[in-house]
């Protein structure tokens, strides 16, 4: 049976290592026959990515450096993708950042600078890359970002990132309306807690992780592969009637009061 993503060129942002949600997504997309383009911020992550591709017998059509904090970097990256690949059909945004010291204690203590940084890297970045990507999505397309329940409910320590994710989810809706007329869809996956490099060292992760195992309807945590498959669905034509949506991949935890 041919893959669901055969003939589709998809850009994946945010592989830092083998634990990254973006890597789980990349494997699901590859399994469905997608042609993959990767972007990294840090050279260390780029090296890890090349090693992962090699170990998994996967090939990238292109790997490019992209720091979402810089308009020039975004423009240059998509220019290179346009020149070397041409049309794209999908974009995976799996990028977020907040200062570690603001991911604990009281949200009321968030600094102006820290608030703006979290918004810039974790929410505005989706706006900026959507604008760049839509120029290359001349055959229609699908854009998928990653969010977390802390946008809807107060989750201890998530603080400034919860507010950034609320902004990200609202951006999904506004962007979906903008680009729908070009045949481009924009959706988000709201994943349950997964032990990744970002989650490392932030307070409270272990407690939240344990709670899901006890309280979620499925009584188990989700993993990168489950998020990968749900993201793959959004990138495939199976989800052609869905846009502006936030889909929870969290063992059902968000329905529990
Ligand atoms: P990772 O640490 O594996 O990935 C985070 C990525 O963000 C890194 O690849 C990093 O790039 C990238 N990044 C940070 N700043 C920039 C920047 N300025 N420009 C470009 N890229 C940048 O963590 P996850 O896989 O956990 O995170 C992926 C997404 O999933 C995030 O949006 C996160 O909020 C979301 N999420 C995570 C959950 C979890 O439990 N882990 C739950 C729900 C949502 P580099 O490596 O090059 O620094
Ligand atoms: C309530 C939860 C517990 C953890 C609290 C906050 C987690 C915030 C996520 C945010 C993306 C983490 C950071 O920005 C970490 C950063 O300050 C330091 N790390 C780095 O610089 C590494 C090296 C790079 C690769 O990381 C990034 N991001 O660039 C939330 C849990 C239960 C769920 C999670 C982890 C959600 C989420 O959004 O990731």
Explain the overall architecture.
By secondary structure, the protein is α/β, with parallel strands linked by helices. It has one domain (9-252): 3-Layer(aba) Sandwich (Rossmann fold), CATH 3.40.50.720. The protein contains seven helices and seven strands; from the N terminus they run βαβαβαβαβαβααβ. Strands 3-2-1-4-5-6-7 form a seven-stranded parallel sheet, sandwiched between helices. Helix 1 links the parallel strand 1 and strand 2 (35-40). It is globular. The site of NADPH dihydro-nicotinamide-adenine-dinucleotide phosphate (NDP) has 29 residues, from helix 1 and strand 5.
SSE layout and pairings?
Blueprint: E1 9-13, H1 21-31, E2 35-40, H2 43-55, E3 62-65, H3 71-84, E4 90-93, H4 112-134, E5 141-147, H5 159-180, E6 184-191, H6 205-215, H7 224-235, E7 246-249
Parallel strand pairs: 1-2, 1-4, 2-3, 4-5, 5-6, 6-7
The structure holds NADPH dihydro-nicotinamide-adenine-dinucleotide phosphate and Kalimantacin.
Pathway: Lipid metabolism
Organism: Tigheibacillus jepli
Catalytic activity: a 2,3-saturated acyl-[ACP] + NAD(+) = a (2E)-enoyl-[ACP] + NADH + H(+)
Q: Shape, please?
A: globular
Instruction: Evaluate the radius of gyration.
Output: 17 Å
The structure class reads alpha/beta
| Unique bound compounds | NADPH dihydro-nicotinamide-adenine-dinucleotide phosphate, Kalimantacin
Pathway: Lipid metabolism
Family: Belongs to the short-chain dehydrogenases/reductases (SDR) family. FabI subfamily.
EC number: 1.3.1.9
Protein name: Enoyl-[acyl-carrier-protein] reductase [NADH]
């Amino acid at each position: 049976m041919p893959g669901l993503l055969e003939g589709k060129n998809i850009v994946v942002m945010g592989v830092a290592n083998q634990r990254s949600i973006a890597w789980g997504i990349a494997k699901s997309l590859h399994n469905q026959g997608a042609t993959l383009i990767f972007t990294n911020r840090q050279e260390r992550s780029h090296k890890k990515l090349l090693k992962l591709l090699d170990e998994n017998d996967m090939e990238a059509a292109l790997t490019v450096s992209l720091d979402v904090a810089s308009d020039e970097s975004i423009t240059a990256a998509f220019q290179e993708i346009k020149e070397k690949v041409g049309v794209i059909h999908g974009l995976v945004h799996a990028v977020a950042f907040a200062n570690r010291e603001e991911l604990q204690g009281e949200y009321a203590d968030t600094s102006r600078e820290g608030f703006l940084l979290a918004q810039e890297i974790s929410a505005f970045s989706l706006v900026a890359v959507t604008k760049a990507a839509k120029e290359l999505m001349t055959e229609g397309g699908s854009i998928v970002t990653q969010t977390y329940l802390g946008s809807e409910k107060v989750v201890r320590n998530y603080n400034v990132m919860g507010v950034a994710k609320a902004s990200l989810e609202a951006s999904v809706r506004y962007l979906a309306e903008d680009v729908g007329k070009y045949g481009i869809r924009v959706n988000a996956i709201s994943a349950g807690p997964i032990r990744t490099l970002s989650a490392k060292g932030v307070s409270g992760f272990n407690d939240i992780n344990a709670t899901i195992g006890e309280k979620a309807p499925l009584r188990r945590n989700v993993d990168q592969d489950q998020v990968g498959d749900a993201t793959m669905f959004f990138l495939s034509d199976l989800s052609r009637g869905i846009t502006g949506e936030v889909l929870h991949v969290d063992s059902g935890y968000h329905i529990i009061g």
